[in-house]
Amino acid sequence: MRGLRQVTVIGHGQQLAQTVSFLAEGGLQVRLYTNDEAMADTVAHANVRAQVVDDDYAAAPANLAGPPYIIGLDDEAAARVRTWLPPIRSVFLVGNDRRSKVAANLLPLMPSAAHYRRVMLRRLATVRRVDALLDLARGAKRPLILMYADPDPDAVGAALGLATLWRTVGAQPAIRYTGEIHRFQNKLLLTYLREDIDQLHDDELAQSDLIAVVDAQPGFWKDAPPPARVVIDHHPVRPDTQAEFVDLRPLYGSTSTILTEYLVEADIAINRRLATALLYGLASDTDDLQRHASGADIKAYDALLPRADRSFLARLNKSQVPMDMLDWIAWGISHRVVFDDLIVIHFGVVPTPDVMVQSADLALLTAGITWVVCAGVHDDRLTVIFRGDGHRQDVGKRAASAFARIGSAGGHKTMGRAEIPLRGEHVDATVDLLIDNLFKRMSPARRGQFIRILRNHLHGPAPADPAAMQFPPAKG
Ligand SMILES: [Mn+2]
To answer: pTM of the predicted model, to two decimals?
Structure first.
């Protein structure tokens, strides 16, 4: 369908005259039928063709133009006009009051005043917050933006968002984290961003005169909470969180959403790299808007998507496993035990619990399988990863009922995790531990058989050496 080129306007009055000018300025051809000769003159514009009609709009003009129709009259006169217009939906009444129009089969032309007010008030409040943040930065010599522990993409996006905001007033904030980055994708993101985002150096905390904590709250650091003057976060509100500037929004899916609002409402440019970081933060915290996403998150997503580097994000999403994990996954798949609609894999001692996470996600793709349990030993701890389709069972509850008594265990419908501390037990013993707690009512004969199969797997060949898969062979 081609774009709209002309509208037909019927009525008179100040508000209608403004609407006619507004439409004509936008390039639309306006046919105006009015009983007010003066008005026909006041809206003189190349795009407006005015025609003076009957005093009371009682009958259709002989040469009535086509829809859409916009009526600017009181309710009674509007209802009269409605009777001689065709029975179509494209008949609007100037203004935004819904009630009277619906009855007369007329649509309000404009969004409600309440809607405008909400949008406006939200913007005023947000930009006030931005000004408060900028004020703090203007007075600071060494601003520091702090992320907790191993920062996830949301923390990185939020930190870079705040840094961008502060740079508009000439501040040069340091962006730091207090842990170590483990996930391959997070390392890839930092390389892509080309920002000085680094582990906190020894003296930086003491030297900073403006500390901001993003995507966390100072109480997260149990030993020595940083003396933050700014806290921006979406985690549940901690009663001990206090600072000069606090913006906590537990209903938001990500902290990147809060920063996106600041930047958008205050008209601060979001470049491609920043948009990419914010979008990745928002998408990874909300599982692509599937989890804990609010209207604000959807709005932020909408604002960021066209600005972000989507080919980089696609690569990031695909780059989930390092090369050597491929051989672990291959080993797991060829050592699965299928039990009705369940796949069980025990990996023995693993280099990282990620082996179980990645294998479980993959195994759940199998037709006929509705849940997966992957176990492995790392750091004198048995880690059991649960994945389910969430349709026929709640694997978080299963994890808890199986293991909460002897370790930490829980999760939600589709994902569960249990970690059971070991006391130097042999890996063989963890097979019994797994089966006995997972299947409390299994017959002794079946139980024995199950355990034998899994133990045989552990005593068989180990995963292949990734170097052996390399072509041409790596020179050693
Ligand atoms: Mn977050």
So the answer is: 0.78
